[in-house]
Specification:
alpha/beta; Rossmann fold
Length: 297
């Protein structure tokens, strides 16, 4: 279980050529940025990936597009597998990070019990969820991360329930660090990865990750979609230390979220209450600002 050598700045490809990820895949961008952060920190990692696009598109055994040791876990068990992996690493005083790289289905839903267990035990792992808001690898079904109004293969007329607040669930465990990531703000993204890499204990990172196939969006719109989500308050960008100290790291500018929905064919006008969405965006960021003011970092 020797850790791989640190990724070098000249060769920071965590995800190498040969993968079959779709054009405009947010997950691919996230892996690229993670590789760069590891190289900047002169750090190494091993990946634990449950059933998701992240493990399937890298290739079938014995080949892989990942440039680091990678374990394929079941949908429900990646935090448990990573916990055991990290325990052996720490017992042997080995270097490197153990990183879970998981989609929203294996995070919000099927893997939530083992994720909660790892958080409750404060396992020394980094857990990164690339949230594309669907079960992308198995056909585009709804998950509890799917936003209200979104049409999927199992909600053909639009999902009627609101998206689960996984950040609130994870911060309620009092873990050392939790943060949201937006690829539209790479400096903030990189700083948070560096913060997580510098710490020990359970660290949870949530990345908004467009899936052009499932979102029915254009590949070239991927970064623009997450930019609008942040600017409008649909996806707040913030961090929480020890479950108690908050900081909003990118302030929304009051942009109208309507364009976000119009650029995705998974939403129909009749499925979206834009006035309610605008109020929700305002309420969401107001609450986070209040927490940051009352319980600052």
């Amino acid at each position: 279980m020797n850790a791989t050598a640190p990724l070098q700045k000249s060769d920071s490809c965590l995800l190498r050529p040969g993968n079959t990820n779709c054009g405009g895949c947010g997950m691919s961008v996230g892996l690229t940025m993670l590789g760069r952060a590891l190289a900047e920190a002169n750090d190494s990692c091993s990946l634990v990936i449950p059933a998701c696009c992240g493990i399937v598109t890298a290739g079938a055994f014995p080949t892989t597009s990942y440039g680091v040791p990678t374990i394929a876990a079941t949908f429900a068990s990646s935090p448990a597998v990573a916990s055991g992996y990290a325990s052996v690493r720490d017992l042997n005083d080995e270097p490197g990070q153990v990183i879970c790289w998981a989609g929203d289905g294996g995070t919000y839903d099927i893997g939530l019990a083992t994720l909660s267990g790892a958080a409750e035990r404060n396992e020394n792992i980094i857990y990164i969820c690339y949230d594309n808001e669907i079960y992308g690898n198995t056909g585009g079904q709804r998950s509890s991360a799917t936003p209200i109004g979104a049409r999927t293969t199992t909600t053909p007329t639009g999902k009627s329930e609101a998206k689960k607040n996984i950040m609130a669930i994870m911060t309620a465990h009092g873990i050392p660090y939790a943060a949201t990531l937006s690829m539209a703000h790479p400096e903030d993204f990189s700083r948070k990865l560096a913060t997580a890499l510098s710490m020990t204990g359970m660290r949870f990172l949530l990345m908004h990750s467009p899936c052009p196939t499932g979102w029915k969006s254009e590949p070239e719109d991927t970064v623009e979609l997450v930019r609008i989500a942040v600017a409008s308050g649909l996806f707040p960008v913030y961090e929480v230390f020890d479950g108690a100290r908050y900081r909003v790291t990118v302030e929304p500018d009051g942009s109208d979220p309507a364009e976000y929905f119009h650029r995705q064919r998974r939403f129909k006008d009749e499925d979206i209450d834009l006035d309610a969405t605008r109020r929700s965006c305002v309420d969401r960021i107001h609450r986070l600002r209040m927490l940051a003011r009352e319980y600052p970092v």
